[in-house]
Write a structure and sequence with these properties.
six-stranded mixed sheet; Chloramphenicol Acetyltransferase; GMP Synthetase, Chain A, domain 3; 22 helices; Non-ribosomal Peptide Synthetase Peptidyl Carrier Protein, Chain A; alpha+beta
Amino acid sequence: MSEFRERIVDLSFSKRVLLARKLGMLTHGDRVQIENVDRSEFQKESGRRTVAYVVFDGNKSNASAELREYITGKLPDYMVPSSIVVLDTLPLLPNGKVDRKKLPYPSKLWPFDDRDFMAPRSEVERILADIWSDVLGLEKVGIHDHFIEIGGDSILAIRVVAKIRSANLRVTPMQLFEFPTIAELANVVVAATQENADQGSNLGPTSLAPIQKWFFEQNFTIPEHWNQALLLDVTCELDFEIFESSVKTILFHHDALRTRFVRTGTRWEQSSQDADETATVIRVDLSHLSAPTQEKQIQRTAEDLHCNFDLENGNLIRLAYFDYGNGESNRLLIVAHHLVIDNISWGIFLEDLEAVYVQLAIGKKIDLPNKTTSYNLWSKKLLDYTDTVDLNKDRNFWLQMLQSGVTKVPTDFSSLNNTEEFAQHLRVSLSAPDTECLLQQVPAVYNTEINDILLTALVRSYCRRTASSRMLIGVEGHGREEFIAEGLDLSRTIGWFTSYYPVLLKNEQSENIGDSLKSTKEQLRRIPTGGITYGLIRYLQSRSEEQEIFNTMPQPEILFNYLGQIDRYFPDSRLFWIADNPVPGPVRSKRNCRTHLIEINAVTAENKLSVDWTFSTKCYRLSTIEEIAHEFISELRSIISHCQTLRFGGYTPSDFPESGLDQADLDKFIDSLN
């Protein structure tokens, strides 16, 4: 360790000690050199990996296992080498530094526990590997593969956790990121205990969640018409009576789908009630109609489903089964008000709907997984967390951010009409190879998350186009944070959990992509608790004067939301496939005002990243949005290309939160090791 200590220069004593603990402890035997190596030559499907090159003294029969255990206890998970290459000597340059170009690719690995692929060694590891493989769409997963590096993200983590719990094991989403390999996770997985979630119908009042309060704060002209919808191809002809019974079972099982919203003066209240007896599912016979007439009938039915919700009376989810007859593939349209469902909920709904239908069709007793934490209990726990945790530091953070001199987003036209009537959509996409690199190779270079990368491309393209130095963005997250209370399990709970918070990103005016990535990453890491406290403080704090202060602050005029790998968290189905055709009917009333000037929704589906830009033609010319959108894609490609050329990009202060270093000090220290 002395060699590393000698190379820590120009740092205070406390910083030297902290960095020695983080990096100096790497020394084992003689020397260990950690490198990021492009593994395309020996493991194409997995992007980049961290490799340790080791020179050992003396007997090395037990050194591999000892070294891995030692390093794992000293370094963050993402820095732990996935492979160890043993060398007689390290190749050196004339100046005594390591000649990295002469370091071999890791074909010579320790045979004891380091290989390109290591199969599960226990039943728990086998279960975990099967689940990861299923959710991530991979042929096989090794026990040392890193969840993020092989395509995982926070949304897919929820689906992984749900499947683990279905296997009578218990793990939390947070643990999945703390222990991101199967070998590590298997050590903390425990047998599922007796379910403590209420398995009843959970009738009665429920506190509004922050996102629901945000919704009603918008004062939409037609709040009843703000929906989400799915159009599905049905792979076989359904028995309509059985299907109708299946839907009723799902409504009884998932309390949020039976929610009503009542307005009392200026306040809205919600409660879960018994399922309404009116038809939730309708069958539309198209067999006798010509193809053009069939499309017209589908449009009329879709408009009826979208436009006729009643927040105070009746169910807020409706389904239409389109029967084409003549042996043709039928279709199913499902429309739900956004107040009762989010994107993750759709996967749960479809999985349960198919399970119940199949069970009823073959005469089996209905057997659904036990309910997880109810939306009612979750909303109460949010209130308890808000009342008991000191949020003053977070409150100051949000207020200071919004008071930082944010400029208005420029528009093409001065007379703005930002209603849904004039909304237009533009889609741009990455190729499948670029998307694979974005998800599996790019994050490892700078230890970034997918949002870091997408928002870096966005702020660079937007600020270059508008000559701005900063950008205020409204960001959405999945919101299913379980840290707010012990014992929460939201992995199979339907409802609207989305978190929404502002992010002020400063453009460093740097042409260096690496500097931009580091800057964006650090700005996002400074956001407290992943942004969830913004909604808690603004919408759940009892002091109305503070809420009024937030109301007077500048609000984001650009919305960004990365929906994740959407086809990964929809279940593999024998009955339903996502249709290629657009969802028919207007999901929002044309009379409603739009909540932002520009909405950007990114999603990965069928191995391609697609980015939808929505704007009002009364605010922007199409050509303006096209320029920004294509510039965004160009920036993404530049980031991907930049990261592909690097074996290692660099660390940022948030990678070493205890060190107290700024970026300049950290860069100086890292340079001293090279």
